[in-house]
Design goal:
The chain has helices spanning 23-32, 77-102, 113-127, 153-165, 174-183, 225-236, 252-260, 276-284, 300-307, 337-349, 356-367, 369-385; strands at residues 5-10, 37-46, 55-61, 64-72, 107-111, 131-135, 168-171, 190-191, 211-216, 242-247, 268-272, 288-291, 312-315, 329-332. The protein is an alpha/beta fold. The strands form two sheets. An eight-stranded mixed sheet has the order 3-4-2-1-5-6-7-8, with helices on both faces. Strands 11-10-9-12-13-14 form a six-stranded parallel sheet, sandwiched between helices. The radius of gyration is 22 Å and the shape is globular.
């Protein structure tokens, strides 16, 4: 079918203020642009005071255009209220300008309902353009502190309206789709997982002989990195030819905690926050990936690790069990450090049972841009044909 013009309205998206904010949405956009023309609009609130008036940044790469609009936001109650109406005005203005220049899009795709989905409803009512909604936000559980239940009535009202009026609902995991059905409203959904850049994340023979575990995250409380470090301290006391690489820490408290455990020198290394490309290189030099979170949705890092051919030890939470089986990993219970330490031992003992090339090949068939792009294309085509 002919290429279509799809307008993306994104609640999160990478920008100069928050370079990693919704980078998984950007990878979806790049995948979708392989088959259709994608124009992204995202508004970024600047609380630093550097943005006095509206500032627009437009970047085009092939058939993907990314329009980021920066606006001033004050943190006072009155400032937040003014910022909301400023956000609404600027978003509508950007959409109108897009339509004047390009004509009405064939379809609108909202990423993360609140609050870009409010504009999805507006477009549907004003221009009769249907919209699809994809949810990525893992707030539909009881573990996350700022979960869906903790949000106010306005948040609940608009979230329900956005899902209800969407012509299609896409979730990145069955776990998340079922949670939305349980907590928000009943609505059928399709699962399209996160994208992995397989030009970066692929199987490669490692250079070192030491068995290397790796963990990659922002190391917030829910990732339970202290549990990983305690389990590794227990494990490495009996296994000398091993090390743990920790990628993504920005708080010195994590390193201080590791020092306090008296893990033997050179057994734990911290890389800090690194580029996406460097994450791939670190994974390619590892043997096994660890994720010991208390709650997850569908972690991008597991897909990335699998595409590198790494077996994964992860907690049996959220959408994680949808990604792992006995051929590519081990599931443990959340907070059970003895299980984690035992699983490290099990991986080393039975490492030859993992076919790393096959793990990588199988993962690429699920997470690659081409595969995800085709899945999005099929949904777009089915919606526009049925109009």
């Amino acid at each position: 079918m002919a290429r279509k013009r799809i307008l993306w309205l994104c609640s999160w998206y990478p920008n100069k203020l928050e370079p990693f904010n919704g980078d998984f949405i950007q990878r979806h956009a790049r995948a979708a642009s392989l088959y259709h023309d994608i124009h992204v609009i995202h508004l970024a609130a600047d609380v630093s005071g550097r943005t006095e008036q509206k500032e627009t940044n437009l970047h085009t790469d092939g058939d993907l255009s990314e329009q980021i609009i920066y606006y001033k936001k004050e943190l006072s109650l009155w400032g937040r209220l003014r910022a909301h109406y400023r956000w609404l005005f600027l978003y509508k203005q950007a959409i109108r300008n897009y339509i004047v220049k390009n004509g009405k899009p064939d379809l609108v795709h909202v990423h993360i309902p609140m609050k870009a989905g409010i504009l999805g409803i507006w477009l549907k009512e004003k221009y009769a353009i249907p919209y699809i909604v994809t949810e990525h936000w893992g707030i539909y559980n009881e573990v996350e502190v700022h979960n869906y239940a903790s949000k106010n009535r306005t948040f609940h009202f608009y979230t329900k309206q956005i899902f209800d009026k969407a012509v299609k609902f896409i979730s990145v995991s069955r776990f998340l789709g079922e949670a939305v059905n349980r907590l928000v409203l009943k609505k059928s959904y399709e699962v399209i997982p996160n994208v992995v850049d397989t030009s970066l994340f692929f199987y490669k023979e490692k250079d070192n002989s030491v068995f290397r575990f790796i963990h990659v995250s922002n190391m917030v409380t829910l990732k339970n990195v202290e549990g990983i470090l305690r389990a590794f301290a227990l494990f490495c006391s009996k296994n000398s030819n091993t090390e743990l690489i920790m990628v993504g820490d920005t708080d010195p408290a994590t390193r201080n905690f590791a020092t306090g455990l008296k893990i033997p020198a050179n057994k734990v290394s911290f890389r800090g926050e690194v580029s996406y490309e460097q994450v791939a290189k670190e994974m390619q030099q590892a043997d096994c990936f660890i994720l010991f979170s208390n709650i997850e949705n569908s972690p991008c890092v597991i897909g990335e690790a699998l595409c590198c051919g790494l077996p994964v030890i992860a907690t049996r939470v959220g959408g994680v069990p949808e990604l792992l089986d006995q051929s590519n990993g081990i599931l443990v219970d959340a907070k059970q450090e003895d299980q984690l330490a035992a699983s490290m031992e099990r991986v080393i003992t039975n490492y030859t049972a993992y076919d790393r090339r096959k793990i990588s090949e199988d993962a690429a068939k699920i997470f690659s841009s081409v595969i995800i792009g085709k899945q999005l294309m099929n949904i777009y085509d089915s919606v526009t044909v049925s109009r």
